[in-house]
């Protein structure tokens, strides 16, 4: 069942149109991530849903109640929308202690003192902030302040949580821990989470479904993490979900040749007809070997990155990136040096229409 419906939203600031005709539907109980590059309009959308901004056109409904509809003169204030919100700048009140910051929503709701205290302590424990309740925000690190903001959003057990990049200031371990906590909490409480980020890894790890937004504020694909990663509908999504190789090819009858040479791409040719095709694959989908069958190339660059080895390989004027686990490279004799030749095959390869790719390159 739908809990948030965003319908045909438009929003401009002066000449700059951030959203044109945005439509989005979020189901009750799911963790839905909006993933897109910086500046694409994620925060603006969250502020529209929370009621801190008013759209120029369109409608937003929460739990089947229209909360925003400028054409009908409807605009329900933020505090009546029943949301827990953590904004990107996690504004905690500087003059209030951690305890008072976190307890604020319960105080406003006039909850009894004892309940307030228990709930604040419980929530602080959940975000790893026990013992710091008497501190002022100025006595906390950025990451700790971010956790105070998160605790404040969670304290009233909202059934709907809007989280705008809530983990960006945390160090890697804590980020992973909090990511897990948010997911656990959402499962336990059956809460709906709308999570906004530019971080692909978090999005894949946390989401039931995610929507990929491009620079122009258009949603390119909405699906589960696996489909988004493995079955991207266009090159923008493919490229955004990790480093991608896009290699130009030339048609030779039913087959395709790499770059400017005469070597065939060892992969089933594309279905359908496009004037020009491009082969897309991830570095981890390229297999390298010292010899054997496949396309021949030369290692132009070899980079040791600890757990991984990265190679840049030239094949008849085309350059492709590959990555392999260092352990595997050592065990299988695949520690190539720059200038050495190798043979390449593919684990996976997607065909893209070159016209749709031009758009990605342009952006
Ligand atoms: N209050 C505002 N006034 C003018 N421009 C704004 C305002 N808020 C956001 N923008 C612009 O809208 C675009 C989208 O911003 P934002 O939603 O913050 O992006 P992000 O996806 O990084 O969260 C940006 O170009 C930003 O400069
Ligand atoms: Mg933002």
Q: Order of strands across the widest beta sheet?
A: 7-8-9-3-10-11
**Roughly how many Å is the radius of gyration?**
25 Å
Contiguous helical run count: 10
Overall 3D shape: globular
Residue share in helices? 25-40%
Total number of domains? 2
Structural class: alpha+beta
What is the C-level CATH assignment of the largest domain? Alpha Beta
Task: Please name the CATH topology of the largest domain.
Answer: Rossmann fold
Bound molecules: adenosine-5'-diphosphate, magnesium ion
Task: State the main characteristics.
binds magnesium ion; binds adenosine-5'-diphosphate; Rossmann fold; 2 domains; six-stranded mixed beta sheet; single chain; 20 strands; 10 helices; alpha+beta; five-stranded antiparallel beta sheet; OB fold (Dihydrolipoamide Acetyltransferase, E2P); 363 residues
3D architecture notes:
This protein has 363 residues and is an alpha+beta fold. It folds into two domains: 2-237, P-loop containing nucleotide triphosphate hydrolases (Rossmann fold, 3-Layer(aba) Sandwich), CATH 3.40.50.300; 243-362, RNA polymerase II/Efflux pump adaptor protein, barrel-sandwich hybrid domain (OB fold (Dihydrolipoamide Acetyltransferase, E2P), Beta Barrel). The chain contains ten helices and 20 strands. It has helices spanning 42-50, 98-108, 113-126, 142-154, 172-189, 200-206, 225-230, 235-240, 326-331, 354-362, and strands at 2-13, 16-27, 31-35, 57-62, 65-69, 74-75, 84-86, 160-164, 192-197, 209-213, 219-223, 245-252, 255-258, 277-281, 286-289, 295-305, 308-315, 318-325, 341-346, 350-353. The strands form four sheets. The chain has a six-stranded mixed sheet, with helices on both faces. Strands 2-1-4-5-6 form a five-stranded antiparallel sheet, covered by helices on one side. A five-stranded antiparallel sheet has the order 15-19-16-17-18. The longest helix has 18 residues, at 172-189. It is globular. The chain starts with a strand and ends with a helix. 35% of the residues are buried. The protein binds adenosine-5'-diphosphate and magnesium ion (MG).
